[in-house]
Amino acid sequence: MAERRPPQHEVTLLRQWNDLRTGFRDLADELLNDVEANAGLAPSSFQVLWFLVTAPEQSAPMSRLAETLGFTTAGTTKVADRLADAGFVERETHPADRRVILAVLTDAGREKAVAASTVLAKALEERVVGRIGADAFAALVDTIGALTPGSSKDR
Hints:
- Strand 2 (89-93) and strand 3 (101-105) form a beta hairpin.
- The chain has a domain at 39-129: Winged helix-like DNA-binding domain superfamily/Winged helix DNA-binding domain (Arc Repressor Mutant, subunit A, Orthogonal Bundle), CATH 1.10.10.10.
- The mean pLDDT is 92.
- The protein is built from 6 helices and 3 strands; from the N terminus they run H-H-E-H-H-E-E-H-H.
- A 3-stranded antiparallel beta sheet has the order 1-3-2.
- By secondary structure, the protein is mainly α.
- The longest helix has 32 residues, at 8-39.
C-alpha cells in the first residue's frame, strides 16, 4: 500500500507553524515564570491583576474576567479567591445591577500589578527585544496583530 503524505511544501509550512506555536508558548511560559519567581504571582493571578490595572476604573465583572482571560467561571472564582485572600482584589456588587459581581483592584493589588509588570517588561527587554531588536519586535507585534481574527486588518 502506498503511503500518503502531504506535499513537501505543506510539511514545511506545518513544521514552521509548529515551531511558531511551541516557540511562543515556551517563551510566554518562561516570561510568566520570571514574574512568578521575582514578583511572587502565579501566571493566572498576574493575568487578572494586569487586566484590572488596565481596565476602566480598575474593576471588571467576574464574567468579563473569565471571558477575556479564557478562564472557566470556576477557574476565575478560584483565582479571584486567592487574590482576595491576599488583599489584592475585593468583590463588590455592581451599583446598577446587583446580580453582577465586580472584581475591584485594591491599592495593594495595584502595587503588586505594577511591580509584576516591571518584572515582565525587564524579561521582555532581555529575552526578546535584546535578541531581535526593538524594530523587529514592533514588526512582529504588528504582524501577529494583523493575523488575529477580528482585528481591524482582518475586515
